[in-house]
Amino acid sequence: QVQLVESGGGLVQAGDSLRLSCAVSGRTFSSYAMGWFRQPTGKEREFVAAISWSGSITTYADSVKGRFTISRDNAKNTVDLQMNSLKPEDTAVYYCAARFTGYGGSRYYTRRNDYNNWGQGTQVTVSS
After folding, report:
1. What pLDDT digit, counting tens, does each position of 43-72 carry?
2. Mind listing the pLDDT tens digit for each residue in 82-113?
3. Short-list 22, 18, 4, CA closest to 91
4. φ, ψ for residue 49 (rounded to 5)?
């Protein structure tokens, strides 16, 4: 098990950028696939982006493709989400998630049920 702590949320205007960071405790961080999800008020939690344990492959929700970038630093035990060209519809609580995969073939996961470790979330609000 690992513990995840998100940071970097805030209030920005449409078109601005934000960088979210997720700090992960545990010496085996590099053996976890990581993901970012978000939950707008009153809606279901939805997939945003995911990255394999090695960082070699990534995937994104269509709604953020081309604007958001997920990355990880296995030496620092962090996974980041760079968000550019933010829109009001990006407003949500953003959650970091982790799933142990070991060091086998790289893959990512996009479903909520794929993950069993979650952070507490960080609020992102984009004003128009």
Report:
1. 999 999 999 999 999 999 999 999 999 999
2. 999 999 999 999 999 999 998 877 899 999 99
3. 18
4. -160, 155
Question: Whose structure tokens read 């700090």?
Answer: 23
**CA–CA distance, 69 with 64 (Å, rounded to integer):** 9
The span from the first CA to the last CA of the chain, in angstroms, equals 39
- In whole angstroms, give the CA distance from residue 94 to residue 90: 10
3-state secondary structure the chain: CCCEEEECCEEEECCCCEEEEEEECCCCHHHEEEEEEEECCCCCCEEEEEECCCCCCEEECCCCCCCEEEEEECCCCEEEEEECCCCHHHCEEEEEEEEECCCCCCCCCCCHHHCCEECCCEEEEEEC
Phi, psi of 112 (to 5 degrees): -55, -45
> Which position has the token pair 């069993």?
116
